[in-house]
């Protein structure tokens, strides 16, 4: 058997997209929200002497159901427009320790424990470890913990949820008489709704346990959460929707995005220099300006195109008081606009649309569809199914809550066929307890 090898040269033409640095930045710019884009443009202006910034008057819109405006009047005090920097939980605790306790060894122990308070307000170090690291005895560490737990917010310094609730109940004059002792002695049974055990032990009615349960619901499991960051509380909407003659119209909102201008005078001056390095540098910075200007425009146009298509498909949301949503996917919008699905994903994440009744993230308008059983070709969005489940549970007899299987049957009556496990998944996603945990004993 004879083997032969033949070598030949062939010329092939292959089309390949090269991921250049500018292309990567263009993709990143599309993903930026307004605040991130503003910071990016400002950084570019610092690096490029040919870029001049002109900042627009900014509208600040709350991301909930209300909106407000920032006014830039000449007579206003600019210092009043600087937001206060809220204290962190740690700073708040330290201030209280220095204010309330004398400079003793015990205060040093309290300050030591304060360093091990997490963002939720819980103590993350054991008393044994604290004693070992400080050289204090167990009684001194315990005294320091007691002093720490007397500070605000109520519940701070707790080592577990049970202790956190007890600290809050102890300070509340409005707490039910049996609340403290039930949580202290029968916390597991209380949390697992084994209320018959509690009723028998304390010789009380189930309605009394229900009263304690309703009260505990008003307490916070995370006392430190009120000191959470306020970043992201205010957003600048990229789009605005106005209903004109019964039809929602989308307009682009460029407020807050700096306008870039080309420093032509400086460029002309530097262009006349005979230094080749300077000429190369100034030419490169001009190209960078042109790329940045084009990228900003493309970003705005893409957001407007995607937003317009979303509003067109979800018109009923803007026209009807029930705010119904139709099933809609990223792929459908991508195919309609002839762009990649990942482009739509980057466009809707972190971008907001302002209406007369609140501001909404663009991605919130997307929902998978569930086929209806009436075979009319109409699909129901998951959000609408969740809304229907919520309404059924709100209207149920709290003494006999509706089971997941009963919800399946009622949904079927509304031409929606889904499995019981799917109903359970939606219910859990909405933080609704199971029927056994929704039962009340009033």
UniProtKB/TrEMBL annotation:
GO terms for biological process: DNA-templated transcription initiation. One of its GO terms (molecular function) is sigma factor activity. Pfam families: Sigma54_AID (PF00309), Sigma54_CBD (PF04963), Sigma54_DBD (PF04552). Keywords: DNA-binding, DNA-directed RNA polymerase, Nucleotidyltransferase, Sigma factor, Transcription, Transcription regulation, Transferase. Residues 81-266 form the RNA polymerase sigma factor 54 core-binding domain. GO terms for cellular component: DNA-directed RNA polymerase complex. Residues 279-440 form the RNA polymerase sigma factor 54 DNA-binding domain. PANTHER family: RNA POLYMERASE SIGMA-54 FACTOR. Belongs to the sigma-54 factor family. NCBIfam families: rpoN_sigma. This is RNA polymerase sigma-54 factor. It comes from Candidatus Enterococcus clewellii.
């Amino acid at each position: 058997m004879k083997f032969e090898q033949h070598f030949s040269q062939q010329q092939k033409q292959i089309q390949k997209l090269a991921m250049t640095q500018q292309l990567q930045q263009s993709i990143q710019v599309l993903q930026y929200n307004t605040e991130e884009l503003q910071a990016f443009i400002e950084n570019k202006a610092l690096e490029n002497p040919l870029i001049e910034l002109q900042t627009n008057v900014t509208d600040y819109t709350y991301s909930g159901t209300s909106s407000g405006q920032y006014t830039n009047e000449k007579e206003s005090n600019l210092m009043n427009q600087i937001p206060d920097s809220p204290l962190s939980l740690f700073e708040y605790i330290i201030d209280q320790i220095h204010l309330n306790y004398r400079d003793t060894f015990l205060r040093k122990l309290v300050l030591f424990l304060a360093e091990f308070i997490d963002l939720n307000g819980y103590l993350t170090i054991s008393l044994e470890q604290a004693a070992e690291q400080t050289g204090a005895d167990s009684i001194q560490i315990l005294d320091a913990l007691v002093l720490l737990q007397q500070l605000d917010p109520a519940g701070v310094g707790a080592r577990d949820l049970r202790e956190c609730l007890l600290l809050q109940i102890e300070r509340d004059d409005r707490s039910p008489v049996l609340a403290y002792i039930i949580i202290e002695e029968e916390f597991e049974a209380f949390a697992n709704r084994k209320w018959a055990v509690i009723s028998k032990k304390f010789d009380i009615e189930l309605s009394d346990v229900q009263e304690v349960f309703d009260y505990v619901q008003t307490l916070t499991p995370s006392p430190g959460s009120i000191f959470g960051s306020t970043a992201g509380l205010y957003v600048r909407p990229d789009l605005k929707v106005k209903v004109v003659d019964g039809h929602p119209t989308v307009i682009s909102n460029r407020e807050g995005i700096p306008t870039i201008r080309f420093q032509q005078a400086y460029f002309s001056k530097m262009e006349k220099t005979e230094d080749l390095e300077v000429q190369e540098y100034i030419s490169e910075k001009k190209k960078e300006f042109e790329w940045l200007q084009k990228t900003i425009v493309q970003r705005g146009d893409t957001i407007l195109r995607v937003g317009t298509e979303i509003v067109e498909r979800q018109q009923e949301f803007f026209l009807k008081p029930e705010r119904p949503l139709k099933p809609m996917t990223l792929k459908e919008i991508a195919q309609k606009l002839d762009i990649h699905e990942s482009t739509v994903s980057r466009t809707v994440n972190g971008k907001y649309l302002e209406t007369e009744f609140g501001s909404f993230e663009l991605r919130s308008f997307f929902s998978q569809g569930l086929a209806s059983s009436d075979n009319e070709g109409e699909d129901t969005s998951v959000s609408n199914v969740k809304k229907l489940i919520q309404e059924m549970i709100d209207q149920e007899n709290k003494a006999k809550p509706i089971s997941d299987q009963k919800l399946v049957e009622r949904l079927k009556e509304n031409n929606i066929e889904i499995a019981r496990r799917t109903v359970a998944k939606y219910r859990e996603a909405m933080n609704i307890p199971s029927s056994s945990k929704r039962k009340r004993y009033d």
